[in-house]
Design a protein that fits this description.
Length: 243
Amino acid sequence: SKGIGRATAALLAAEGASVVLTGRDEADLEETADLVRSAGGSALITTADLRETPAIDAMVDKAVGEYGRIDILINNAGGALFTPVDFESLSEDDWDLVVDTNLRAVFVLTKAILPAMRSRQYGRLVHIASVAGRTNSGGMAGTHYVSAKAGLMGFSKQIAFEYGQFNITSNVVAPGLIMSTDRVKDLWATRDEAVKRQFLDTVPLGRPGEPEEIAYAAAFLASDQAAYITGATIDVNGGRLMA
């Protein structure tokens, strides 16, 4: 409903997509829906906690009831306790919260949508992970977040392997630090200048990214121009990781 999700929804709408917006904050969803409609698209709002399977099932039913099918799934729900957490201080509850939000929700939502995509022999899955899952968090998040995002990349590859025969692609966008929400901006503001400079020194472009820079990559992977790309990860991190 904000940040990367909002930017991606608006861009897909501008490209002609009807968009289903899902999140927990209805006011934020309404703001995003307004942007989608301003871009010329149709927007359907569904409020749900994607850690809850019944909520996911209801959201999918509502989306199919409105539009008849789901062609593209952008798995952007996530975020986390970005405040660094020392591993030995990490609680089981925090581990469960972050892994459930960033990985389990993707599993349940993808499982709910794939049968119809398989039946129609078409689907585009785009998962928003993180450079942290490819290397480390650089002090911006804890082990739970890094592990969940790494798991998401493995999940995407296995889905790509199993469902390619049905003309379904599964790919990942791995952002670096994106100034996407007030929460991230507030976190950044709490860091002293030496810590921020140390982090940015690992980014050749020397700056955080913007939500729209992730949205362009996600929209490409969701398009027919990317029909022969599956099981891939596109790194959008200013060069912090070059692989």
